[in-house]
Amino acid sequence: MTQNPPPDDQPTATCPNTTVSAPKLYGKKLFWAVFALAMGGFGIGATEFTIMGLVQEGALDLGVSLPAMGVLISAYALGVVVGAPILTAMLAKAPRKNAVMWLMLAFTVFNALSFFAPTYELVVVSRFLAGLPHGAYFGLAALLAASYVAPTKRGSAIAWVMMGLSVANVVGVPLITWLGQTIGWRWMFASVAIVGALTLVLITIFVPPVAAPKDASVRTELTALKNGQVWMAIATGVVGFGGFFAMYSYISPIATDVAGIPLQTVPVILALYGVGMVIGNGVGGKLSDVSVIKTIVWCCIVMIVLQLAFGFTAHIPWLVFVWVPLLGIAGSALVPSLQALLMDSAPKAQALAASLNHSSLNTANALGALLGAAVLDAGFGLRAPMFLGAALAVLGLILALITGMRQRKIDAASANA
Q1: Could you tell me the pTM of the whole model?
Q2: Terminal CA-to-CA distance of the chain, rounded, Å?
Q3: 17, part of any domain
Q4: 52: which DSSP letter?
Q5: Cys-Cys with 70: which of 77, 89, 296, 369 at CB 3.0–4.6 Å?
Q6: For the domain that residue 181 is a member of, what is the CATH number?
Q7: Phi-psi region of 272 (alpha: psi -120 to 50; beta: other; left: phi over 0)
Q8: What is the pLDDT of residues 8-40, one digit of tens each?
């Protein structure tokens, strides 16, 4: 991503809706700063999504059922939900570069612990711990990236940080899935720990320091939790994405047992989903710069249609390779807009609001995995998670429309104030 410097070559400027003063970056300096932050997203995406392609191998190694492996997915997601508000508030006064480095260090250590955990129960605990820094890292990294660019480029800057997660699904997830199938599924944890260590080096070198807001405090950040619009945005993400994760958490058995695709082909499906995420992330960033609410609404509509189509045609092998990347586009395009909506909803507590986006998405992850396990345990079959996903996306659409109406009223009141 590039950006031309302003005519007066002003070195610093105040970010919108925040008291933080940050250096404005251009060209290679901007690229490498955002690349370093996105590398952390790459590691996070790898550990979050690779396990979904290794549930069968993990179940065999640990001697548990597929629904029990779904608990590992939910444990990580629960860690994100718990850690995002707590760690963001605790780091409110820390310089933002230092904060993201501490978060990435914790992420690296806890993934290494997952590699060595000898029992199923300890893997569940280590997965929970590894999820704790996730939301706070993405929230603060998004704010850092946004602070380095002009306000009109904010959505794109956020999307570029999220691009690390998307690229992880193209490169990291398929590669690490193949590695896990070849030499042992636990090697996904070691691989992610290596990426985390590399991220720490890159951030140290390329990310300029940015101080915390002068009035930052735990109390100030927690004001975001009193904002009704923040909770509406969170609910939209939870319900809408919950449907998506109900399907994606079990994409491996859906592909092999319903479509009859060989297990060895699952990494290809995951790679196609990652390609969709990369495309959707870029498109979603641009659309977010135009209209946050309209982007959210249309993404929900598209997810409803795609989930239904997938559910009815999941037995056709080649269509799996169509629906999965399209769902990746729709889901990923939604993320920058949800991030921007939360940041706008709590201008005095943007760090916590930004991190709550990932709490909502990982609540959706946990909800989707658990609801998917519930319909499977109830005997509805492997198509059921897709239909469940479509129903949840309908609820997400309703919440998005309500959120949009509330936001228009808030914007009108601000304009008349």
Answers
A1: 0.72
A2: 36
A3: no
A4: G
A5: 369
A6: 1.20.1250.20
A7: alpha
A8: 333 333 344 344 566 676 778 888 998 999 999
